[in-house]
From TrEMBL:
GO biological process: rhamnose catabolic process
Designated name of the protein: L-rhamnose mutarotase
Molecular function per GO: racemase and epimerase activity, acting on carbohydrates and derivatives
Gene3D superfamilies documented for this protein: 3.30.70.100
Pfam family name, one: rhaM
Top-level taxon of the source organism: Bacteria
Species, as recorded: Kribbella steppae
Length: 108
């Protein structure tokens, strides 16, 4: 399983609503993520809007492609696009800035 970390920028004036939307992610969206190979997926949000995501997948590109083929993802991304800056009209899940892993503490 590969580990991936990415960042995006949430509009500072939309932080509260963005957090609220993620308190109750649609069950069908969660199921689609699991079914398409997203594992141990977490989002972290700094108070200035910096969003950091972490996900494990065999192949993130394949997992993203599989999600893009689902109707629920199209609906979710359409609703989430308005919360972000710097994505030039692309869906947020196609706008990740992937961060290179430089250290990982191995378990004994």
């Amino acid at each position: 399983m590969n580990r991936y970390c990415f960042c995006l920028q949430v509009k500072p004036d939309r932080l509260e609503e963005y957090v609220e939307r993620h308190r109750d992610v649609w069950p069908e969206m969660q199921a689609a993520l699991r079914d398409t190979g997203w594992h141990n997926y977490s989002l972290f949000l700094r108070d200035d809007g910096l969003l950091i995501g972490y996900v494990e997948a065999e192949d993130l590109e394949a997992a993203q492609k599989a999600m893009a083929a689902t109707a629920v993802n199209a609906r979710w991304q359409a609703e989430m696009t308005e919360f972000f800056t710097g994505i030039d009209g692309r869906p947020p899940d196609e706008s990740f800035l992937l961060l290179p892993e430089i250290f990982h503490l191995q378990e004994d």
